[in-house]
Amino acid sequence: MSDALFDDPRLAGVYDALHPDRSDLDAYVAIIDEVQASSVLDVGCGTGTFACRLAAGGLAVVGVDPGLASLDVARRKPHADRVRWIHGDATMLPPLAVDAAVMTANVAQVFVTDDEWLATLAGIHAALRQGGRLVFESRVPARRAWERLTPALTRTTVDVAGIGTVESWGDLLDVDGDLVTFRSVTRLHRDGLDIESRSTLRFRDRTELLASLDATGYGIVEVRDAPDRPGLENVFIADRR
Fold it and tell me: Is 234 in the same domain as 131?
């Protein structure tokens, strides 16, 4: 099921304006170049920023996301015509044999049950060629990133053409073991409207993630410190056995 943040047309339409700095993707572009991938599966592609960036560089790209509204935004971007867009998730992919698959940002943490996570890893495994690489990031639980989920620390205000002033903030709701639930509120000032989206992320530790990769047929290549968030996130690189 898609999070409302990515499947509500009003929210998907302002997502990029509220998140203009995507320098976090630079590390993934570098890894794709490093492993010499010519075809890439972008899992949880959202509004398509990463997929379109790769396509602009001449790569064959498949972007999959359960949020139809986000895909509608993605399809309107430059170079989107070079991307194969799929509405769905990694468990329902057509036959593929890509060189690399990537989950950026929070994507690897949205699968809160073991069944969901293992099924996703298995679906990606089937889409990779033999020896193809899986790359994803996950926050380090010990750093307790959820403590920064407060309105004061997350509030952003932008002016969006045709929409007016848009304000957004996050607010922590609950921490239950390794499950963190929070809400995102987007305020459309012109319409006097607040749109709320609730999300839950699972903060798996490094040992658990490595075990899940091994269980679904991956070999561990490397675990790196995320260059844009040193000490806060790990980047996992695995290959299809």
Answer: yes
Q: Where are the alpha helices (DSSP H) in 19-172?
A: 26-34, 49-56, 68-74, 114-127, 151-154
Q: Give the Cα separation of 137 and 237 in Å (integer).
A: 9
Indicate whether 122 and 223 sit together in one domain. yes
Answer yes or no: do 80 and 171 share one domain.
no
In sequence order, the 6+-apart residues with CB closer than 8 A to the CB of 92 are: 123
| pLDDT at 3 exceeding the cut of 90 | no
Q: Are 97 and 213 contained in the same domain?
A: yes
CA dihedral 212, 218, 224, 226 (to 10 degrees): -70
State the Cα torsion 71-72-75-78 to the nearest 10°: -110
- The angle that helices 49-56 and 26-34 make with each other, rounded to 10 degrees, is 40
The predicted-structure confidence for 156-215, as pLDDT tens digits, reads as follows 999 999 999 999 999 999 999 999 999 999 999 999 999 999 999 999 999 999 999 999
Q: Please, which pLDDT band fits residue 228 given cuts at 50, 70 and 90?
A: confident
* Same domain (yes/no): 80, 184: no
Beta pairing, strands 98-103 & 128-139:
parallel
> Which residues constitute the domain of residue 165?
142-201
Residue closest to 111 by CA, chosen among 199, 21, 227 = 199
Residue 1 pLDDT exceeds 70: no
pLDDT of the residue at 123: 98
